[in-house]
Amino acid sequence: MLKKYYKIESGRLASAPNEEVADIVMMGSLSQEQRSVLVKEYEITEHTIASAFDSDELSRIEYDDDFTTIVFKKPKNYSAADNFQFRVESFGIFIFKDWVLLLTDSDIPITDEKRFSKIDSLNTFVLKVLSYAIYHFNEHLKIINRINDELEQKLRTAMENKYLLSMFSLNKGLIYYVSALNSNDTLLRKLQMGRSLNWTEAERELLEDIQIENGQSLQQANIYANILTSMMDARASVISNNVNTLMKNLTIVTISISLPTFFASLFGMNVRLPFGMNGDASGGNEMSFWIIIAMCVLSVLVFMAFWGKKK
């Protein structure tokens, strides 16, 4: 169960001892008892609470009498065990008159002074959280591009489908990202109208910057998704060509081995050979063995010369 308290001090966030003195409360992995408290004491509906943790929920904003609800999208924390499956998740921001409730399944580093600095109001804090979500998307897009480059290098010599399947997973994740960023863009446009949130001039400028960053991330995600989609067939053809090349080389080796085997089998038959090549006790050609060896070697050389000229 995640539950942390923070207060705004000198333009940054500091830990608070309890809820009474906190400006921001961050909660996650809610128990049924905590959900009941939110419903009874703060009149947040069960549906709204569930929306804050629903990865399929679209970004949206709702205005109530006592608070404003924002549901926003951000990337789900990625680990190596996810096997190139990049997902998105939702989190909820409930803006009351003098405090903010943040509901999230994953911890948001709001004490990071690099990302959360110069906070002088609750509205600024909310905008900083939205900005962090967009920053998280940008970082993941860089990782996806780097992984795609590495997979492309491995595909040049690969003869298995596992790298291609990894690319399918990347492409699927990018589609999720494009959808989430589109949803975020719609919400940011609504925030600019700010029916109940009284933005200062500085806050409006910050909101415009966030919207621009979200638009750039959306454009970048679209570009990566289009590249992956358009190149998927070409990369599948690379694997097919690699397999064909391997089969061609195996065929050459097989034929090269078959020719000496043919001559060895021919002269190994239990019959009398012509040209006095029987090496029996009554006398015969002592060079028979070396003649057969020479014929085997010559057959391989002739075949390789023929293949090289044809190639």
Q: How many strands appear in the DSSP assignment?
A: 7
Number of helical elements: 6
- What is the radius of gyration? 35 Å
- How far is the first residue's CA from the last residue's CA? 68 Å
Average residue-wise pLDDT: 83
Helix content: 55-70%
Strand/helix succession = EEEHHEEEEHHHH
Record the SSE blueprint:
Layout: E1 2-9, E2 12-15, E3 24-28, H1 32-42, H2 46-52, E4 60-63, E5 68-75, E6 88-95, E7 100-103, H3 122-155, H4 162-193, H5 201-267, H6 288-310
Parallel strand pairs: 3-7
Antiparallel strand pairs: 1-2, 1-3, 4-5, 5-6, 6-7
Architecture overview:
It is a single chain. By secondary structure, this protein is α+β, with helices and mostly antiparallel strands. It contains six helices and seven strands. The chain has two domains: 2-242, 2-Layer Sandwich (Beta Polymerase, domain 2); 243-310. 56% of the residues lie in helices and 13% in strands. Helix 3 runs antiparallel to helix 4 (162-193). The radius of gyration is 35 Å and the shape is rod-shaped. The model has no long low-confidence stretch (mean pLDDT 83).
